[in-house]
Amino acid sequence: MEYKKNDIVTVAIEDIGNDGEGIGKTEGYTLFVKDAVIGDVVEARITKCKKNYGYARVEKVVTPSSFRVEPECPFHKRCGGCQIQAMRYDKQLAFKQDKIRNNLLRIGGFSKELIDTVMEPVVGMEEPWHYRNKAQFPVGYDREGNLITGFYAGRTHDIIANTDCALGAPENKQILEAVLSYMRENHVTAYREETGEGLVRHVLIRTGFWSGEIMVCLVVNGTRLPASEKLIEQLLEIPLAGTGKSGQDKRITSISLSVNTQKTNVIMGNDIRLLWGKDCIQDTLCGLTFSISPLSFYQVNPGQTEKLYGLALEYAGLTGRETVWDLYCGIGTISLCMAKKAKQVYGVEVVPQAIADARENARVNQIANAEFYEGKAEEVLPAFYEKDGQAERLETMSGQAKNESEQLPGEQGGSKLHPDVIVVDPPRKGCDEKCLETMLKMQPERIVYVSCDSATLARDLKVLCEGGYELKRVRGVDQFGGTVHVESTVLLQRRGADPAH
Ligand code: SAH
Fold it and tell me: Fewer beta carbons under 10 A from the terminal one: N or C of the chain?
């Protein structure tokens, strides 16, 4: 049977693809069906045909799967954010568990027996809604020319007018409505991508889930905002309900502009101008205080982040004697949590502002045993290893006494050159080869790999295990309910290393 675009077929959905799509067969022809849930029988419209497989989307659910639930958000099919919101949460977790497992088997080349021994069940959320502490809403116009804000429809730049995202903080809706009403009353225009005209591009809202402090930052195609005092007035008048976990009321403490006059898809401009309040909000994570500016990276799901860091800390097995490198350290969140339990931590991060924040966060939390280096992990680590490693080898050869910070592995407590633990938390593309190679040369007792993409994780683990490490523990943590994304933490141990250390 030959199929073509727009054909309607009935398909039983038997599997889930990596992007959350349902997979089913019709007369031997495989279809990837958007918005179908495993276990559904659906009528689907074919959207694209290839020789051996095709793509389709659900027209009608004929027999709903027992895993199908009523989605919280009426826009979930059109919005690009949540791919699997119609799937029951326990099934979402099972899907994420399988995703990590399959990548370790197929890409990592690990045996089933090993994976089934070392892998623990993915850590889910108690409440998989309203977990995000940050959202960036585009501002624009609908077809009738009304001012709107919401989300981009999947793979497009059309804005869906939805101020009430089910993943975001509940007060976002009130804040966005205040911004829209200020704009209407003061004839402030929204930016139009096609022409590059108009003023307001995005609204960034960040909430300190612990502290209750809220930041509102308008990204503008200009350097100032007309009648900005009116915006401040409207925002501060919002009757905000609820408190942060600290018990303090939710309150707006920072209102600013981000200047972005470029024709670009990048949301934020680097020039931040404070309109009212403080330039940062503060929040507490794992008992440490962090200052978050509009431009800083900060984990978006603080509740699950604490669980993720808790695991990373457990895997690191710190007793107070250890030397730790934290690569891809961002604003130093993992580094500072580890510093409380280690002798010395060295963080590496490529974004200069994040390094400045990390140093400031160390100071505010009175942590003196964390040092931060700005640069790429694959450059900073090898440069350090080559330079100091050479010095150490020379000293050893000439029989000079080694100072305490430059011991060889096996001696009590590691050194900067031969740390006890290396933690990595790279972006989706994973670690650079040069970085992995240097890690292997440094021979830490343990490597803790925190990853937001289990495919690149599996690829990198293969290299590290071929280089002398053993896979000891794996566990996923769901930071992104409703979506297909999942974080993982992994513990690797050096072969021949004493596990008691
Ligand atoms: N560990 C931090 C940040 C993780 S996100 C936390 O949990 O908050 C990954 C970080 O890696 C980002 O801050 C990003 O800026 C940084 N990064 C990306 N490429 C890098 C590279 N080649 N070397 C060092 N850091 C990099």
Answer: N
